[in-house]
Amino acid sequence: MFTSLPKREGDLGVRNIECLNKALLAKHAWRLVTGENSTFCQIFREKVFGRSTLMNVLAPRITGNASWGVKSIFHGMTFILENISWQPGTNSNLNVWTSKWVGTRTPEPKGDFLDPEFNFLKDLRIRDLCLNSGGWNQDLINMLFDDESSKRILAIPLRINDGEDEIIWPFSSTGVYTVKSGYGLLFNDLFMRRGTSLDRSRLNQGRKNFCGKRLWHLSIPQSWKILIWKILTNSLLVGGEFVRRNLTWNPLCPLCRSTRESVEMVDHLFKECSITARIWAGSQLGINSDQAYNLEVGDWIVNWIQYLRTLNDWQIRVIQFSAIIASIWNLRNNVVFRGEIFNPKGFFSAYNQVVTCAMKGFVERVEANVTAHGNLDSNDLTDIEGDLVRNGHPVYVTGGFGSCSLVRVMVDASWEKTWQAAWGWVVYDEHGNVIFKGGEKGRAESPLQAEALGVLKAIQWALGNNFLHVELSSDCLQFVFQCAGLGTRHYQTKGVLEDILCLTPSFHCLCFSYACRKNNVEAHLLARRAMTMA
Length: 534
What we know:
Layout: H1 17-33, H2 39-48, H3 54-57, H4 68-83, E1 85-87, H5 138-144, H6 147-154, E2 166-168, H7 179-193, H8 205-214, H9 222-232, H10 239-244, H11 266-272, H12 274-282, H13 297-308, H14 314-338, H15 344-374, H16 378-390, E3 395-398, E4 406-415, E5 420-428, E6 434-443, H17 447-464, E7 469-474, H18 477-483, H19 491-503, E8 509-514, H20 521-531
Parallel strand pairs: 4-7, 7-8
Antiparallel strand pairs: 1-2, 3-8, 4-5, 5-6
Helix pairs in contact: 1-4, 1-7, 5-6, 9-14, 11-12, 14-15, 17-19
């Protein structure tokens, strides 16, 4: 079970079959729920649901004579329906009380509004909560829902342009179901049901960080990585471990067998054994393992690899160090299971062959990377564009270079976990003089959405003041990437970004650029000041 934990938690990351199977089935269910028009979905809907609408599909009923395939897909659909959410569009027809549109749940009513005497409210639609002039009816929302639900609802941005109600998967950034996000949700739920903590006490923080961030990126064979991982997690089966588990086994070290104190534990086998100490001292690294008698072997290995990584030829040194560990383990197994006797000359001859083979694999991987990056493909071009954006180069959405009324608008946003948000703008003319400063307070669902709304409000301000040649700068690199068409659109900013793109044709020239925080301090202070306003 522990081998299924992610590598960042210090384990192997082996997929749990039960969770993976359900996540894959849920992918088919997602295609049915979202109305995908693939051949499979069309045939499945026609055969199972006939002329039923999408809302009928969202309330599946499995009959006794349903096939095994249909039952399997509905098994995944149950998981999908429990976790999907709705993103309301313009003039939304979703039921306020039964649809999951406030985060991942339905809003909580204030008082007894769902009692029989308030039957006229049971068919309340989301569009009924909006004002005719646009925006949410704040007084009505505060009257119908509890405080937390009211804040969440008021933080949902209403589209300027027409948009339909959309089903989203809130556990992925794009709002589209992925097997990876579904597996993660199912796996965490499995651990919660079994009452197992994801934090494992047998790994200290140093080993845990090494297993999660360093070990699996080393340029050594995969079998060596797994062996080192077993040593670090005390999961390697040696003689002492067999005895500890009340299994019949000779507890003495198979290499030295000198005294009763030479019980084969991991620390003894790889560091304290007299044979092992001679191997470390006679290797190319010339390590004296006796000096680290007060360190556990796992911490000793981590310290040595981290030290070797500071050297110029660290890749070669790490291969040599790891090869010694693998050779000691192979020697131990040959002695235990094949009855061989330790021969220093034969040992180091086999060790040199192992190192040579690992070095050859390392060189081949380096040459393959050089060859792959020697030719410039579309992915490389995207990386180059990304580097230009990071360095502050503007990305033009409309028009090109212009000089008429050219202004630069610096935007920043502030956000708090109570879904409060605020925005600040500083507008400069073509000579770098400040011509306007302003701030505004509102609501947003996330920091990224707050940045997006800040950009939208700045664009609306520029149009309202007849500035048609604008460079808009933000310190949110992720959203600037989305405006430049380089990043994946987040579902929380998708509608805001579409509203921004609908306004771009009104400009003669509009471009977006990234400004680091130190160049955007004034807009940041204005946003913080607006946050403190009543």
